[in-house]
Amino acid sequence: MTETEQIIVGLISSAGQSKSLAFEALKKVKTGEYDEARKILEQAKEADLQAHTVQTKLIQAEMSGSGNKPEVGLLMVHAQDHYMTSQLARDLIEELINVFEAKEGK
């Protein structure tokens, strides 16, 4: 595995962790544990930030014009898919927490 492929796998891993934590937060909503859900969602945001940092480095490498331009292959597309869906899940679950918490009058 090349260094770039390892970096891309790191992006997939961070995005997957973010998405997993977001759904864990949603489970806390089912039991009314809103404070715990928000704490877990903050962990998801931290994992998402790690993914974003990797993505930014890859974009910068591509735009640098140097010979270190990452290859856009199926692995890169897969990584971007994971990253985008993790962001969507996290944002949607954050809004669901707000909706359910407001519904309970908290």
Explain what the structure shows.
- The protein has helices at 3-30, 34-63, 74-103.
- By secondary structure, it is mostly helical.
- The protein has one domain: Methane Monooxygenase Hydroxylase, Chain G, domain 1.
- Helix 1 runs parallel beside helix 3 and helix 2 (34-63) packs antiparallel against helix 3 (74-103).
- The modification Phosphohistidine is found at residue 78.
Can you describe this structure in just a few lines?
This protein has helices spanning 3-30, 34-63, 74-103.
- Rg result: 17 Å
CATH architecture group name:
Up-down Bundle
Number of strands: 0
Number of helices: 3
N-to-C order of helices and strands = HHH
The dominant shape is elongated
CATH superfamily: Phosphotransferase system, lactose/cellobiose-type IIA subunit
The first-level CATH class name: Mainly Alpha
* Proportion in helices: over 70%
Query: Average pLDDT value?
Result: 91
Summed up, the domain count is 1
Straight-line N-to-C gap: 50 Å
Low-confidence stretches: none
What CATH calls the topology is Methane Monooxygenase Hydroxylase, Chain G, domain 1
Strand content: under 5%
Major sheet: size, sense and barrel closure?
none
Name the structural class.
Answer: mainly alpha
Cofactor: Mg(2+)
Keywords: Magnesium, Metal-binding, Phosphotransferase system, Sugar transport, Transferase, Transport
Modified residues (Phosphohistidine): 78
Active site: 78
